Amino acid sequence: MSKPPSVCVLLAELPEGGMRACQADDREIVVCRTKDGIFALDNICTHAHARLNEGRLRGTRLICPLHGAAFDVRDGRALGAPATRALATHEVRMVGDRIEVAVSPGESKAPAV
Ligand code: FES
Questions:
Q1: Which domain holds residue 68?
Q2: Residue 37, burial from CB neighbour count under 10 angstroms (0-12, 13-18, 19+)
Q3: What does the pLDDT look like over 4-18, one tens digit per residue?
Q4: Could you tell me if residue 23 is inside a domain?
Q5: CATH number for the domain including 49?
Q6: Which atom of ligand 1 lies nearest, measured to the CA of 65?
Q7: What's the CA-to-centroid distance between 16 and ligand 1, angstroms?
Q8: What is the pTM of this model?
């Protein structure tokens, strides 16, 4: 049986173009709100240990603050070096004004660069 989703963020706390870090199932998650929707991914860059919520969100591109790798928040795919591995993505659902995240156990299936 899968675990129930974790409440990460309230919608009112996350304007479009914004992101928030949270902890769910002992995993660091970043929740990103874009014009294409709300997405949740692992918050730790796949290149080295940097927190992506400290970087920038440009449209659907999440840019690492440490060496500038970019990821597509829609599927976690790495878009630019030096990262080559995709970020794990997690299912998001809205319950009232709460953004809930169901943490996936594994890594993203999105292709690497
Ligand atoms: S730690 Fe993210 S690009 Fe190097």
A1: 6-102
A2: exposed
A3: 677 778 999 999 999
A4: yes
A5: 2.102.10.10
A6: 2
A7: 24
A8: 0.89
